[in-house]
């Protein structure tokens, strides 16, 4: 009897200690996103709005000598921009407060080349304020584009211009913030009006602006802002204006190598680098029309909803963010044709991603970390982005089998890594259970924040995700099936 009691007590202790044995989560691997970058990833898609004197001169790049008087939208309605953008499902708006021509859409006290000398509201208008206010009113984020290159300023190329540029940033961040993203355009130098000198200027883009100090100054004014430029520091360019990031897209690069005049810099930006030392995810910038500014003769060349869906898939669907430019016309309105395209796109997106067939579906994994419930396969279909499936540290592969219950039509598989712990997965394939056996239906490389894989329209009741290679144990937070 005594023996039995002792045994019972001992086994109780064992069970207790098993239950209490805490399996630790994987340690972060390599570079990881900052809190600001994480918030930025979650926005996924937002609008760019290009609007300035170019809208009235029919140009893409103003020379800097245009009269302020030509800027005169006849029936501007900024609420119409922002409500259209919001209805399209876009989560923010980055506004060209000053493009390369130097014309300021707010009454900057540091220049005469601005709305204050235009006919708009007899020089009393402030379009940056209107846009920032409307963004707040409609609950979307507001961002700033302020062209570093300025073809109007006499002193462009000299140290005093950098002072001027910083003063303008101070004005903008003090009066119109908070700002979610600051867009530093990489276009630099060349010919221009330059206060009447009409010459051509070359600057050393990596040194002239003294970016580290400019960025520190702005960060001080707005600690939550993320900075976009060709190479970061927070967000990098996708290296084209056509609407796609590489199928392989690492969120990491080593920024110190980017300014070294590498011949393959565009390839590097488009794909990122697997062993990059910093987290610098890509943003895909593309216009809904051929130009960045409105031109009447492009009214018939607005992208179709189908094309916009393709762009979404090759940007957000490959782990980048999408910034879609929608340029207001000379009235100061988003043109009817663009509105129609956006409505169609939203409808198509809603239909395509209407029902997640995998939500709360049963999932089994080849293995899971420490056999702890905390890291089980079910975490990928629980609809909670903060839980994840992962394996023991030594494991660099593994698979997840998702049971859809019965045969369903499948077109898209969406996957997300839990990037808080770094981007890990190098390659994976997708299989579908058909006619009693598993059949490979897709083969891909990186996942990152999000990956949407289009598969041939199939009927299946089970999907298997096979992680074939990972830099460290795979950590997946979400799998959705449409
Ligand atoms: C480029 C600029 O030169 C274009 O005009 C446009 O603003 C685009 C978004 O960036 O570098």
Helix count, DSSP H or I runs of 4 or more residues = 11
Rg calc: 26 Å
Number of strands: 19
Beta fraction of the residues? 15-25%
Terminus-to-terminus distance: 60 Å
- With strands numbered from the N-terminus, the spatial order across the biggest sheet is 1-2-3-4-7-8-11-12
Shape: globular
Helix content: 10-25%
Largest β sheet strand count, sense and barrel closure: 8 strands, parallel, barrel
In sequence order, what are the helices and strands, one letter per element?
Answer: HHEHHEHEHEEEHEEEHHEEHEHEEEEEEE
Taking all residues together, what is the mean pLDDT? Answer: 94
**What class, by secondary structure content?**
alpha/beta
Bound small molecules, deduplicated: beta-L-fucopyranose
List the uncertain runs: 13-20
Structural description of this entry:
- This protein is α/β, with parallel strands linked by helices and 482 residues long.
- 25% of the residues lie in helices and 24% in strands.
- The chain contains 11 helices and 19 strands.
- The termini are far apart.
- Bound molecules: beta-L-fucopyranose (FUL).
- Beta-L-fucopyranose (FUL) binds at residues 60, 185-187, 285, 292.
- Residues 60, 185-187, 285, 292 line the site of beta-L-fucopyranose.
């Amino acid at each position: 009897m005594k023996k039995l009691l002792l045994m019972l007590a001992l086994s109780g202790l064992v069970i207790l200690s098993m239950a209490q044995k805490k399996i630790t989560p994987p340690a972060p691997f390599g570079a990881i996103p900052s809190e600001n970058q994480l918030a930025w990833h979650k926005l996924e898609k937002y609008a760019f709005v290009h609007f300035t004197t170019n809208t009235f001169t029919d140009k893409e790049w103003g020379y800097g000598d245009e009269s302020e008087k030509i800027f005169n939208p006849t029936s501007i309605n900024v609420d119409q921009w922002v409500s259209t953008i919001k209805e399209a499902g876009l989560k923010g708006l980055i506004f060209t407060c000053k493009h390369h021509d130097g014309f300021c859409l707010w009454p900057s006290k540091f220049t005469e080349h601005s709305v204050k000398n235009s006919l708009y509201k007899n020089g009393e208008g402030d379009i940056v304020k209107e846009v920032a206010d409307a963004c707040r009113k409609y609950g979307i984020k507001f961002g700033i584009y302020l062209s570093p290159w300025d073809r109007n300023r006499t002193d462009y190329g000299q140290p005093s211009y950098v002072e001027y540029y910083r003063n303008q940033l101070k004005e903008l961040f003090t009066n119109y913030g908070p700002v979610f993203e600051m867009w530093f355009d990489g276009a630099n130098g060349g010919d221009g009006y330059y206060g009447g000198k009409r010459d051509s200027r070359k600057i050393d883009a990596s040194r002239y602006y003294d970016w580290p100090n400019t960025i520190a100054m702005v960060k001080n004014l707005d600690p939550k802002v993320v900075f976009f430029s060709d190479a970061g520091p927070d967000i990098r360019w996708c290296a084209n204006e056509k609407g796609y990031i590489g199928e392989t897209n690492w969120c990491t690069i080593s920024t110190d190598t980017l300014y070294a005049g590498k011949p393959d810099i565009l390839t590097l930006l488009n794909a990122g680098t697997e062993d990059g030392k910093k987290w610098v995810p890509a943003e895909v910038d593309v216009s809904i029309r051929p130009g960045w500014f409105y031109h009447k003769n492009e009214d018939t060349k607005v992208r179709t909803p189908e094309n916009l869906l393709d762009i979404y898939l090759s940007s957000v669907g490959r782990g980048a963010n999408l910034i879609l430019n929608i340029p207001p016309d000379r009235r100061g309105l988003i043109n009817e044709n663009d509105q129609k395209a956006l409505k169609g796109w939203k409808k198509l997106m809603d239909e395509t991603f209407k029902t997640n067939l995998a939500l709360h579906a049963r999932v089994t994994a080849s293995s899971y970390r420490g056999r702890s419930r905390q890291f089980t396969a079910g975490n990928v279909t629980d609809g909670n982005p903060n839980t994840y499936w992962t394996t023991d540290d030594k494991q660099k592969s593994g698979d997840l089998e998702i049971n859809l219950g019965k045969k369903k039509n499948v077109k898209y598989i969406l996957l997300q890594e839990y990037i808080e712990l770094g981007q890990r997965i190098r390659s994976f394939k997708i299989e579908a259970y058909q006619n009693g056996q598993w059949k490979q239906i897709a083969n891909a490389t990186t996942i990152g924040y999000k990956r949407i894989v289009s598969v041939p329209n199939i009927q299946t009741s089970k999907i298997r995700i096979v992680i074939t290679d990972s830099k460290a144990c795979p950590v997946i937070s979400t799998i959705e099936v449409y």
